[in-house]
Write a structure and sequence with these properties.
six-stranded mixed beta sheet, five-stranded parallel beta sheet, 13 helices, single chain, Rossmann fold, OB fold (Dihydrolipoamide Acetyltransferase, E2P), alpha/beta, 344 residues, 16% strand
């Protein structure tokens, strides 16, 4: 009961204050409002007493409840954006105060509201970048098993190219962040005198351009430099640890180093392995037998994902597409090998 009365008194005060002070900005043509200032304020106060809990107090309480569940880094980013917007609005409003009439008092207020909201919106949208330079204690803690809100992309994952295909399917909703030192490494590889490295670097730049054009995923370039760390992999792990971000890579050594430092790793090779089709003995496959096997009479084919299929007595079907029946599946450290027999 006490809370309801308090909410109504707050609504009364806010409505009354708005009308009492707002009368000063009413154009001279509507001077009647000024002569009956007290009466209009009283009416506004009554309206605030009736509707205040629903129009002011309720929305404010809901806003505070929503903000209470947000990470501190998001609130700080929004506050920084709001402050920057208001500073810009103050600079823009300086010449507006010299305008005659109510324009000189109203336009600066409108500019402040618009620029403040714009700064707040941009600050929230750029929370990942701003949060990256904040102390770790101000960011939301990473919970093991919970997906990271940020993903840093390694050079190997960009050159690999499969990340572009994954992004274009729409399964990846998290923004991909590419530090500037990763771009520098790609550029150095693309400028290499070695033909193979140069082609890999150029492929990586093409894949990155393809990612930036994809509408299904957002690519953010982080202009940061960690002068105290030398190697690119160490920079990436250090940055991911400070940002509580995951690393997207295909590099086995980086994978192990990151895991030892309790940094979440998203390995594209692990994803590819998880998506391999499950085959059982007795199933039929149509494969193109490309080469001879190690044993006499064997033929070798490959599935679309690179899995080797050894066809017993398949040499006679060399360079032909033939239907085979799976006999057994061998799992090795290098991957799966499927053994099959020709059908018919």
């Amino acid at each position: 009961m006490a809370r309801g009365v308090t909410s109504r008194l707050i609504g009364l005060s806010i409505f009354g204050f708005i009308v009492w002070t707002g009368v000063e900005y009413v154009p001279f043509g509507l001077g009647t409002f000024r002569y009956h200032r007290e009466g209009f304020t009283l009416v506004a106060g009554c309206l605030g007493f009736i509707f205040g809990p629903y129009l002011i107090v309720g929305p404010i309480r809901s806003a505070f409840d929503a903000l209470n569940g947000q990470p501190l880094s998001l609130l700080i980013s929004g506050a920084i954006g709001l402050i920057v917007g208001l500073v810009i609005a103050a600079l823009i409003s300086v010449p507006l105060f010299g305008l005659n009439g109510w324009f000189g008092s109203t336009l600066p207020l409108v500019v402040s509201v618009v620029m403040g909201l714009a700064g707040l919106f941009l600050g929230v949208k750029r929370e990942r970048e701003i949060g990256g330079v904040l102390p770790r204690s101000l960011r939301a803690p990473y919970v093991p098993g919970q997906a990271s809100s940020s993903v840093l992309v390694d050079t190997s994952a960009i050159i690999d190219g499969r990340i572009a295909d994954i992004a274009e399917t729409g399964f990846m909703k998290t923004a991909l962040m590419v530090p500037s030192f990763i771009l520098d490494e790609l550029r150095h590889i693309a400028d290499s005198s070695d033909d193979l490295r140069r082609s890999k670097g150029r492929r990586g730049l093409e894949i990155l351009g393809r990612l930036r054009k994809a509408v299904q995923v957002e690519v953010i370039v982080l202009h940061v430099e960690l002068a105290q760390v030398d190697e690119v992999d160490n920079k990436l792990v250090s940055m991911a640890r400070d940002m509580d971000a995951a690393i997207l890579t295909t590099d086995f050594n980086l994978n192990r180093v990151a895991q030892l430092q309790e940094v979440e790793v998203l390995n594209i090779n692990d994803l590819a392995g998880a998506l391999k089709p499950i085959l059982l003995p007795g199933e039929e496959l149509s494969v193109n037998i490309l080469q001879e096997g190690k044993e006499s009479g064997q033929g070798v084919a490959y599935l679309d994902d690179g899995t080797m299929v050894v066809v017993e007595d398949g040499q006679r079907y060399l360079n032909m597409v033939h239907t085979v029946v799976v006999s057994r599946i061998l799992q090795t450290s290098a991957g799966r090998i499927i053994f099959a027999d020709p059908k018919g």
